[in-house]
Amino acid sequence: MACKSIARTTIALGILAGSHGHVVAHDLSSVSAQHAGSDASLPVGDGRVSTDAPQTGYVYSCTSDFRTGGARHYGEWLRQGRWFPDEKVVVSGEKSWPEAYFEMVADKSSITVKMNSLPTNHPTGTFPIARSDPAYQYDTNPNPIAAQALELMIPAQPSFASEPGCLRRGMIGFTVNGVALYNALDDAGLDAAAHEVQDACAGHPSGRGQYHYHAGAPCIPGIKENAIIGWAIDGFPIMGLSGGEGQAFTNSDLDECHGHAQQIAIDGRNYSYAYRVTAEYPYTLGCYKGTILRGTNRQIREGLNTRRIRGAAGGNRERQPRDQRRRD
Q1: Which domain of life does the UniProt lineage start with (predicted)?
Q2: Per residue in 109-142, is it b (16+ CB within 10 Å) or e — as a string?
Q3: What is the pLDDT of residue 261?
Q4: Cβ 286 vs Cβ 256: under 8 Å
């Protein structure tokens, strides 16, 4: 699946002026087709969930009530506590989205984001997953991709919260190609990137049809670079895998929220902190470092399709045993 420009992206925020944080040497030469920055194998993140307090390398989750969703069967790419991204099957198809749009416009205090959660720069796989698709034996995602109608505000000058905030289900940020970013967990509270079958750009739809990523996806512009690849809804930027000289970050380089102090200048605005994408779980955010504007989560809820798609995950489906999980 080629990454190509097919729709509209507007970011009225200027250009990254440059920033350099502390990095240590890690090889960034291997990038798989489905998981940006992956090595031959990665540790599965199952069980690395905290509901009491944030921890480095964990998802600080707002809920401990996980469903029986997720992938239908364990894939052969999962063995001995590790997963092998290059062996993982992907959902077939190349569906283009010419109606995709993504806009960011900043004023002094806030940034207004308008998006429909369709990727502006790449096609997606075909969802629902067809029975004839080899991916179906592992993951029966019945959800079609549907355009959303999101308009939300994030801080233009984000501030640090008095204590880190937990991550809810659903959208915790967005990428520069207009795709929603979810946390690293599937509906069963397991490592979504390891277990769930996604398309070649590491995306898939939720029960409301929102196309999203759970990790650093190979089709995100700048994903392998020291560049902004998205924003968390607390207003802090999310940076790519590289520290600027072909070196990738790992969990040991980052704090409990999966970020670090870094000076970034954009259009006269100065950021002092950024989240980082890593090849290893939890991939993007571990918790929120900043304060979310009042009303942002409501704006997200109001912008999603009002009904779950019939037969979609968490909708009109029976609860399944652990080896037949569905997804978020």
Answers
A1: Bacteria
A2: ebbebbbbbbbbbbbbbbbbbeeebebbebbbbb
A3: 96
A4: yes
What DSSP assignment string belongs to 166-205? PBPSSEEEEETTS-EEE-SB-TTSSBHHHHS---TTSEEE
Residue ranges per structural domain of the chain = 1-13+26-311
Task: Please name the residue ranges forming H helices in the chain.
Answer: 192-195, 296-303
- Gap between the Cα atoms of 201 and 216, Å rounded: 10
What region, left, alpha or beta, does residue 228 occupy, with left being phi > 0 and alpha being psi -120 to 50 degrees?
A: beta
Put simply, whether the predicted model's pTM sits higher than 0.70 gets the answer: yes
Please state the length of the chain.
328
Residue with tokens 């998205």: 230
Pick from 63-67, 104-108, 116-120, 159-163: least confident: 63-67
- What number is the average pLDDT over the span 15-38? 37
Structure tokens at 311: 């037969």
User: Which residues touch 193 (CB under 8 Å, ≥6 apart)?
Assistant: 35, 83, 184, 202, 214, 215, 281, 283
Give the DSSP letter of residue 252. Answer: G
Integer-rounded Cα Rg, in Å, for the chain is 18
Helix, strand or coil, per DSSP, at residue 105: strand
Q: How far is 153 from 165, CA to CA, in rounded Å? A: 18
Tally the C-alpha atoms within 13 A of residue 136's C-alpha that lie toward its C-beta.
12
| Chain position carrying tokens 């277990």 | 195
